Amino acid sequence: MSHPVRKRDPRATRQRILAAAGRLLSEGEGAFEMSWVAREAGVSQGLAYHHFGSKEGLLSAVVDDFYDRVEDAVLLARFEEYDDWEARERDRVRRYIDFLLGDPLGLTIITRLASTPAVAAAAEQRWDKLITAGSRNIAEGQARGVVSARQDSDLLAAMALGATRAAVGRELAKCSPGDPARLSEDIWAFIRDGLGLEDTA
């Protein structure tokens, strides 16, 4: 009696290859080859190429997956448990820093691979999306009278996000990153001054 052939799930296979590439990138400080990824994922090298086309295609997919996760968890999350605009955005900054410092790929993507064409292209696409979302968020704060209405919300969003990304990148590049809570407080103090938030104490 013949046994039924188990069909391979393409989505599960693709995710396994993606996860293997992420592990190798974080452990190898940004270095990887398709043959390494295939071996790590337990698939043939040809199957890895079938799913991603090339090494660059796989790298782009890893970067996209990383940004999907950080956006879903932090940057584009609604945090509906908050009524207070400043408390919500202060917590968003804290969670963003915790995510980047805690995710194995944070250091690799934000610093070591930042200038790689595939990573830079993906980051640039995400940047425009984040500025647009940040601008809407700041406009909400302006409408509530929390954020100064003197400046353009797009400009404020670009400055706040740019400063945060640069500061976290510098911290990640250190041999021994400092206390995330202190970093979060320092960055938020800078952002709130730039946004022109009034002291409530």
What features would you describe in this structure?
By secondary structure, the chain is an all-alpha fold. Helix content is 71%, strand content 0%. The chain has nine helices and no strands. The protein has helices at residues 10-27, 34-41, 45-52, 55-75, 85-102, 106-112, 117-143, 153-172, 180-195. Helix 2 packs across helix 3 and helix 5 (85-102) packs across helix 9 (180-195). The termini are far apart. Mean pLDDT is 88; it is low at 1-6.
What's the helix-strand series?
HHHHHHHHH
Main pleated-sheet profile: none
Number of strands: 0
What gap, in angstroms, lies between the N and C termini? 79 Å
Q: Taking Cα atoms only, what radius of gyration do you get, to the nearest Å?
A: 20 Å
Which percent bin holds the helix content?
Answer: over 70%
Class by helix and strand content? mainly alpha
Overall spatial form: elongated
Low-confidence stretches: 1-6
Strand content: under 5%
Mean pLDDT: 88
Number of helices: 9
Structural topology:
Blueprint: H1 10-27, H2 34-41, H3 45-52, H4 55-75, H5 85-102, H6 106-112, H7 117-143, H8 153-172, H9 180-195
For this entry, give a set of tags:
single chain, 201 residues, mainly alpha, 9 helices
Write a short abstract of this structure.
With 201 residues, the chain is mainly α. It is built from 9 helices and no strands. The radius of gyration is 20 Å and the shape is elongated.
